[in-house]
């Protein structure tokens, strides 16, 4: 039985869509649990020779490259001196890459492929607890029709910018009409990814083995350090299921279904037969697993792959049944008495023999 609380998985809404691509966002207005748990999600799709204008965001987040290849630039928050930490980092991105950015860091995204090459698709997931609107990731653009600099008086700008005339100041921030995305007529010749810049900023998650979870923390990617979040990737073969799991430190989890489909069930905090979520979720949908709840997932006919953000720097994913599980770790007679079942069923749950030893 499913509870009255609306936990349904949902697709996002396109905020910007043009020949250059689109940006799809999930909002706490449509999914209140995003706001309640302080989580946010967005999907960027860039066509060949398209560009996402420089901006900064109001939350810590990571991007996972679903498909394609491209280039990203990240300018860390200035430290007030000329230290290398404040230098722009320009990196090549490939499918399977994870890249993390902090609140206030300026970034831009570029599909430098041309001709018949494919699109670049990146899903972004963030901790929006301290964002302008919890449940939503907000962006502040330095260029384009919605630039944060576009409304300033040109004369005042010129006065604060030595050597620049009023006309030049007006032209700089009012010549680009595009919002968020723009198409390019040719490649940007000065954009050169540096392999050394990938260190600490980007890591490739590689292929996730079927039936397993792959967790990335600051130990795997330094850019996650101090953000209080981690990345978890999962994959199931068609028809396969994953044993019920819980994050025992009480961290909320945001899940984006990247491929395939699955039936997902999420327990209620009260337990019993009432579920917060029980539905088929399709690729491109997002759902939230609230703190301390238990999740069960079974893949559909085409299998399932997902990427998730966990609001914990070092998440402890614990399975409740099966080999190496929580129930399997308890004294067998305790499990048998608690569940009121036969000894052989305790063994099937992953526990040791419930028969008393002599």
Automatic annotation (TrEMBL):
Pfam families per UniProt: Cupin_1
Domain Cupin type-1: 5-170, 203-347
Superkingdom assignment: Eukaryota
PANTHER family: CUPIN TYPE-1 DOMAIN-CONTAINING PROTEIN, OS03G0336100 PROTEIN-RELATED
Protein name: Cupin type-1 domain-containing protein
